Amino acid sequence: MRLRDKVAIITGGSSGIGKETAKRLADRGTKTVLLARDMAKLDAARNEFKDRTRVTAVQADVTDRNSLKSAVAQVVAAHGSIDIVVNCAGSGYFGPVVEMTEEAITKLVRTNVFGPVLMVQESLEALKRSRGTIVNISSGLSKRALPYLSVYGGTKAMQDQISDGLRMELRDTGIRVLSYGPPATDTPFLDVSAPDTRSRMSSFVKLAKPQDVAARIVKAIEGDKREVNEGGFLKAMNFFAPGVLDTLFYKWMVRKPKT
User: Where on the phi/psi map is residue 80: left (φ > 0), alpha (ψ -120 to 50), or beta?
Assistant: First the structure.
């Protein structure tokens, strides 16, 4: 896909991978729209762009259909079209499944599953007219669960299935669907998930830089890729030696050290 002068909406665009992806899309000449719930954070993110004339910020909650409907209408009114939708907004949770509250599970599902679906539904007519691209930001954990992150990974696995279904259902429209699973990445998302998520994750894996991940996402969009998952090692090990992975993750993340 040629990116210059395309109109791109990025949910979760105020921080992390979403913000960095938006920056790189803007560098390629797109008219970039940042979506997030917090207007102050959106304004701060917009101020980081080299050319702010090509970047707009729209307040929206991906779990609220009316909020997304209004945001999409604003973008179409301002730019006339939507060519790319990047579903990057996400919610995380780090903790044992047996201790999760119904509220915590509901928040994960509403943000990570309902959010992308609602965004696609509300932007679909504009995407049909442009024969555009949907990008669903999944996770390497969609291919293999980790202790304390399995429900989060489960929502991303569901997102993968939705991406595959959309790709077939929308085939006649010319809309492309990219499912992109980044590796564990050093973003504010880790601090929101739980106080010790960052330290626990970095104890056994090197966290990727959001700038590097964003560059690869944009490259995949330009190349009209179907699916990219940077959790390939986990996927392969889960196929060939799942028991070994169980033991390793138990030792690294679950078992309490002897005193």
Answer: left
